[in-house]
Amino acid sequence: xxxxxxxxxxxxxxxxxxxxxxxxxxxxxxxxxxxxxxxxxxxxxxxxxxxxxxxxxxxxxxxxxxxxxxxxxxxxxxxxxxxxxxxxxxxxxxxxxxxxxxxxxxxxxxxxxxxxxxxxxxxxxxxxxxxxxxxxxxxxxxxxxxxxxxxxxxxxxxxxxxxxxxxxxxxxxxxxxxxxxxxxxxxxxxxxxxxxxxxxxxxxxxxxxx
Length: 210
Ligand SMILES: C[S@@+](CC[C@H](N)C(=O)[O-])C[C@H]1O[C@@H](n2cnc3c(N)ncnc32)[C@H](O)[C@@H]1O
Hints:
This is Phosphatidyl-N-methylethanolamine N-methyltransferase. It holds the Pfam family Methyltransf_11. Residues 53-147 form the Methyltransferase type domain. GO terms for molecular function: S-adenosylmethionine-dependent methyltransferase activity. It is a single chain. By secondary structure, the chain is an alpha/beta fold. It has one domain: Rossmann fold. The protein has seven helices and seven strands. Strands 3-2-1-4-5-7-6 form a seven-stranded mixed beta sheet, with helices on both faces. The relative contact order is 0.15. S-adenosylmethionine (SAM) binds next to helix 1. S-adenosylmethionine is lined by residues 7, 11, 56-58, 61, 76-78, 81, 102-104, 119-121, 124-125, 131, 175.
């Protein structure tokens, strides 16, 4: 089985219980981090007809925050996660084009989106640099990528612990806890606009441009 199929299968498996598993985290810090991220998005809406992509929409936890005045596309490669996202779109009465698609091979033309958002996605994209390069390709020249991502700590001890226990989250969730996301961003040729550490150096809100 390819790496893509393995990760997809894990998210399909976990999709029906994904929200319950993450409930505590969402009620804790994560919910607030999401709200801040979408406030940042709101502040960037400065013209009509802007296009936004949520890459790796998952079960649709960001959908309730989608601004009403944008054309929104949300993609994921797990059909079962997309099914959960569809329920959220109905629940919150949001207009969103939900599509089954691979971040590493996006079916959008170059320079298409004004804003690209992702939360907790590049821990599981099988080839993160390829995925980030695809986001760069579909981002407009003056566009912005805003992401909320957890990654491997730079602290030697904590980083090594994350390496040691990575297999647990990889097997159950399909997510890695030891991704070197800042290096991956650099390898993809994206430029940092702003980086905020939210939890030590492990969870960050990052704004990027091409
Ligand atoms: C940890 S979940 C996060 C979901 C959501 N963004 C959130 O904040 O709750 C990661 C999601 O990324 C999706 N994903 C991982 N690799 C992908 C890829 N190559 N293409 C599309 N979706 C991908 C998974 O299917 C999963 O739904």
